[in-house]
Amino acid sequence: MASFDPQTFGFEDPPARPSTPPVRRGFLLVLFVLTLMASLVYGIPYVAERTGYAWEAGRSRAAVEALEKLDKAGVIKSSSALFRLATAAVAPAVVHVQNRRQGGRDPAIPGLPLGGGQQPFGRGFESVGLGSGVIIDKDNGYVVTNNHVIKDADQIIVRLSQGIDVPARLVGADPKTDLAVLKIKADVKVAAKWGDSDQLDIGDWVLAIGSPFALDRTVTAGIVSATQRNDLQINDYESFIQTDAAINPGNSGGPLIDLSGKIVGINTAIFTQGGGYEGIGLAIPSSMARRVVESLIKEGKVIRGYLGVRIQAVNPTLAKQFNLPDAHGSIVTEVQPGSPAELAGLQIGDIIVKLGDRELRDPASLRNETASLPVGIKVPLTFFREGTPKTVEVTIAELGSTPVLASLGFRIREVPPGEGGASEGRLIIDQVVAGSPAQRAGLRPGIRILAVGRTRVHTKAEYDAAVANFKPGEPVPLQIEGPEGQTAFVTVGGPAQR
């Protein structure tokens, strides 16, 4: 039964406020927590996304406005004008080189080197190798290209920028750097100028001009990716400029130029797995190419400096053993008798680190620097001996070439230790004169010479010294090794082979 007991309230007092049941308070707390979690899960990412879109849109609008201002100021057109002007300055001097050979076809080998690939011509009686070149002297008609572009050519044809084909004469070639100089007789109006590759730095813009896949005067742009690449074992002397400017088969021999329109390199090779451009192109630097080209024009051959040492690279283990401050330099493993190095007092175990004013970090840099020095010049040479730095003065001699011997009819090439996995130097026949005593004795390019008589030979100096013991016209006994590893003794020259 409901209670009707009266309750006493004062006339001035408000009625008692009802209290919230505990269940309602818990519901409100759960609702607040869910709302907070929903905001964290959905709200913040949404706000961030919208903010990000707004920031990107604002950045894009700002970039558009900035570009419009630069365009009105002529900056963009000026930037493009640099590429156009550099191309216009050099492109008329770039030529297409054809290497025509009689008989047979020599298919191109993808990869390294490029540009000398053969294409069928006529009915198969002639093959054509395609490459590029650049005119460096319009008055005398001198054209620079790669040696592998014109190697073994029976006829060389140069196509000028006007589309005119003219015959070319080989002035000289240097297989050690893969350079060659041609001479043409034509009304040449434009010649490209040499630049200074020593001033190039990583990130600088460069342009490659040539005839990739026979597409004359194709221009591609990129940057210098690296300099002084000298450990690729492509050429005997190398200090390549690496670039990502597109270089393809047919670009070989063409110029690599800077934005001032000057030659800073001669394109020569690519790294590729498919045979085409994959972002790594190589060019012979102008500092090396110019010296070789000028020597070929003036002397008909390349005159190189000679020190007279065999060397190997320094590694961290050797640096520690020899008490060196770092793992840079070249350890002397042999000193040639009577050489400039011996006369200067160098000894086996010395570590050469500097020649003249050039720091030498590895054997390749020592070899390149020595070869570039004038014959007869006296330069300071710095080396470590038993952990102590020393400096002596050395007189650079001329590196003796290995010509095709008039009486024997073959030429040899020295392969340094380490190349091809060999632990010691090797002598390989790289040219045999047709009809010569060498050919009649069965010698062919690729055969290795192990010994002259009973004297083992590993270097050209050792070979020359051993051959000097034989009189002109006297038969020379050789121990040789064929490409398959078979060894044999042969006698070259003498009355029986005349």
Number of helices: 9
Radius of gyration: 36 Å
Shape: extended
Strand content: 25-35%
What structural class should be given to the helix and strand makeup? alpha+beta
Biggest β-sheet, characterized? 6 strands, antiparallel, barrel
Text of the CATH class of the largest domain: Mainly Beta
CATH architectural grouping of the largest domain: Beta Barrel
Task: Show unreliable segments.
Answer: 104-125
**Biggest sheet, spatial arrangement of strands:** 1-3-4-7-6-5
Number of strands: 28
Give the count of structural domains: 3
- Mean pLDDT across every amino acid position: 80
Q: Report how far the terminal alpha carbons are from each other.
A: 149 Å
Helix content percent band: 10-25%
- CATH topology (level 3) name of the largest domain: Thrombin, subunit H
In short:
The chain is α+β, with helices and mostly antiparallel strands and 498 residues long. Helices cover 24% and strands 32% of the residues.
List the helices and strands and how they pair.
Blueprint: H1 22-73, H2 75-90, E1 94-102, E2 118-121, E3 126-137, E4 142-145, H3 147-150, E5 155-159, E6 165-174, E7 179-184, E8 193-194, E9 205-210, E10 218-229, E11 240-243, E12 255-257, E13 262-270, E14 281-285, H4 286-299, E15 305-306, E16 309-313, H5 316-321, E17 330-335, H6 340-343, E18 351-355, E19 358-359, H7 363-372, E20 378-385, E21 388-395, E22 397-398, E23 410-415, E24 426-432, H8 437-440, E25 448-452, E26 455-456, H9 460-467, E27 476-481, E28 487-492
Parallel strand pairs: 8-13
Antiparallel strand pairs: 1-3, 1-5, 2-3, 3-4, 4-7, 5-6, 6-7, 9-10, 9-12, 10-11, 11-14, 12-13, 13-14, 15-22, 16-17, 17-18, 18-19, 18-20, 20-21, 23-24, 24-25, 25-26, 25-27, 27-28
